[in-house]
Amino acid sequence: MESIPYDKRTGKIWFNGKNVNWEDANIHILNHGLHYASCVFEGERVYDGEIFKLEEHTERLFYSAERMGIDVPYSQKEINEACKNIINIQKVRNGYVRPVIWRGSEMMAISAQKNKIHVAIATWEWGSYFDPELKLKGIKLNISAWRRPNPNSVPWDTKASGLYMICTLSKHEAESKGFTDSLMLDHEGNIAEATGANIFFKDKSGELHTPTPDSFLDGITRREVIKIAKSKGIKIIERKIKPEEMANFVGCFLTGTAAEITPVSQIDKYNFKICDIISDLNDSYQALVRKKTAA
User: CATH number of the domain that 101 lies in?
Assistant: First the structure.
């Protein structure tokens, strides 16, 4: 199904404290967020009319803003209420929420101390991030030539817009070669994450291995999946993982707000099976987000 361009949609967007018409939620071309990436954001899922882990997402949004030297002109409570209100106004039952904060247009240079801080929240109905048929078979990844930056060089633990440019480059290259996504290594050559999701591997004994999040986001979904796995008695090992170790794993999956739990069938020359453990974790995660009792 062809998607409607995001600037052609209708309804309301929460913009600087007011619900404005979708087509009127505009900014000037000379804004600092566009030119210098002084912008942070969140991605949130709506399930059955409720935002999953809203408070945790808002806390991370404010943490990202603080790390970027951005003083948010609203409280976390106000943002939480605005998120809840906008999904009701837009009548979103199962979709996505995008809060975004950026510096405005008062100064157009590296320095931006006088720039107004703008905040907007948009929401829309949205299904699976990856093709549902591909998810059943497991998606395929290449290995990106781009690496996650050294943590001393960027605010790596934020959802800052500038950090995602190499993700876009990586995903475009992967798709041009017939892959769905791309595996990114860290600055030392260890496995880090996919372009917008964390990664887990299952070994032959049934234990799960996942990279230590010391140069990329420790995702909210990642943390929830670890909790679910531990509740089932599955051992979780967080450690540095070399790419060649993938030869020893039998299963692999991604986790993220958009990706949810997505099985992986191939990364470069390495192949994986969609194991029962992965399917069971997915069932339990879906039960959690929809507040149903897992079978």
Answer: 3.30.470.10
